[in-house]
Request: fold
Amino acid sequence: MDESADTTPPRARGRRPPQGEAVLRRAARILEAFDDDDRHLSLGQISARAGLPMSTASRLASQLVALGMLDRDPSGTFGVGLRLWELASLAEPTVSLRGAVAPLLDDLVAVTRQHVQLVVRDGDEAVVLDRRDGQEALPVHYHVGGHVPLVPTAAGLVLLAAGGSTLLETLIEQGDYRWPTFESPRPSGAELREQVAQVRRADIAVLRRPTSPVVSVGVPVRDRHGRVVAAIGMIVPADGLPVSRIEPLLRATARAADRALAAGEGARAQPDWSRW
Reply:
């Protein structure tokens, strides 16, 4: 049977109908079936999520396993393969960005013993490019390579503030912001606009959710042209370090990251932590 005649409708995340669709795009839909919450999928789940017939999903998934893009365990469950991670790790400019900022994250967590992370924007979400765990056990659910919502996180708010009015209004129109449903009511559109305006004025985001046990603080990282390319975030217990002590550390780290990016990955910038 000619696969170009497939009529099974794709799920919403697919961008093109299967009829006449290139094999490469179908393979991409299989890879896109995996996400933060579902890292291991059965063939039936892949077929349903990618909007492909079982026979097509089986053939393409097997080819992706042979290429190392997917792994398959003895039970037949599929997961993202190591080869895919190896290729993704070569992506520019994230390689130079992560390389320049990584030593600064090491220093920051060594001094504060708090959770820190480096995030970059990906459309209307952010992706964790790097992170370091602090000393205390906190409800930090985002892993390297995982997606982070912009509104409920301080680092995400920094990227949202740098993203322009169109991005902000798009999120407001969507309405839920991926706000944690088990916590306090999400902000209204007017409240979010004011929150973003405050981040732009202060060049720092401080996020306290009344029912959350943590406070997050985020600062922007800029390239040599002054464009915000990432954000550094810190997550602390709500009853832990006051923001007045965290803020100068994060700002100093961000300035050092700016200098490291401007000078190139090989330069080792040292934050000025004299106020700590």
